[in-house]
Design a protein that fits this description.
Blueprint (H helix, E strand, L loop, with lengths): L3 H16 L8 H32 L7 E4 H18 L3 E6 L5 E4 L1 H18 L7 E8 L5 E7 L27 H11 L3 E7 L3 E7 L10
Parallel strand pairs: 2-4
Antiparallel strand pairs: 1-3, 4-5, 5-7, 6-7
Helix pairs in contact: 1-2, 4-5
Length: 220
């Protein structure tokens, strides 16, 4: 509604401007006013459409299709997907999985989307680092829970904002939508898991995915 109201108001003003001049040619100044008004309406309408699309994505997460997901090949796919971007931005990337054959019960497509979202977040975060570094790590923690961590050396998140970043449409990135982290946390909750952040500004940022304790491991 905050977008629709000014669009209606500006449309009405522009219509009135044209009505007042319907029997005479618009001068250059009048034409410029109409052009600016129409461009403003178009730009805000596109912004509103983008907002609605983001909201629909947030509220229409599909139910997970649970399967056995092997973490190591997942990390390999992520590396291949971002290979060119890492090279162009001179980002040092690495990953580790312990044990090497660690598996979890999860929806492969949804979990891959979560990691993509978090990697993109990290790419933005390390943009001003002298030696930008992003790591993916997966292991069983001391509670017996399978975890995935995305670690980078970006600018970090102040402590008072660390929970706010999961609020829909809240963002510290001017170019961001504020949807990805909220969407990612919702996906993890559908897996009976969680997504949390630990950050020390200008030193380390760590996004932590915890799965349900019902994981599987197999020895080679």
């Amino acid at each position: 509604m905050n977008s629709v109201t000014p669009i209606i108001s500006l449309s009405s003003t522009t219509s009135g401007l044209l009505d007042n001049r319907e029997n005479q040619e618009l001068d250059i100044e009048g034409m410029e006013d109409v052009k600016v008004a129409l461009n403003t309406i178009a730009r805000r309408s596109k912004g509103l459409l983008h907002f609605v699309d983001d909201y629909r994505n947030l509220t229409r997460i599909p139910s997970p299709n649970f399967q056995t997901l092997n973490i190591f090949p997942l990390f390999q796919r992520i590396e291949k997907l971002f290979e060119d971007r890492f090279a162009k931005k001179k980002i040092i990337f690495g990953y580790s999985v312990v044990p090497n054959d660690l598996e979890v019960t999860a929806d492969p497509d949804l979990i891959e989307q979560v990691i993509i979202n978090l990697i993109l977040n990290s790419i933005t975060a390390v943009s001003k680092s002298l030696e930008p570094t992003i790591k993916l790590e997966s292991r069983i923690d001391n509670r017996g829970v399978a975890i995935i961590q995305i670690i980078d050396n970006g600018w970090g998140i102040p402590e008072e904002l660390q929970e706010k970043i999961f609020i829909p449409f809240f963002t510290t990135n001017k170019a961001g939508s504020g949807i990805d982290l909220s969407l990612s946390r919702q996906i993890m909750r559908l897996h009976k898991g969680g997504l949390s952040v630990k950050s020390v500004p200008k030193k380390i940022q760590l996004l932590h995915l915890a799965f349900s304790p019902h994981y599987k491991t197999f020895n080679s």
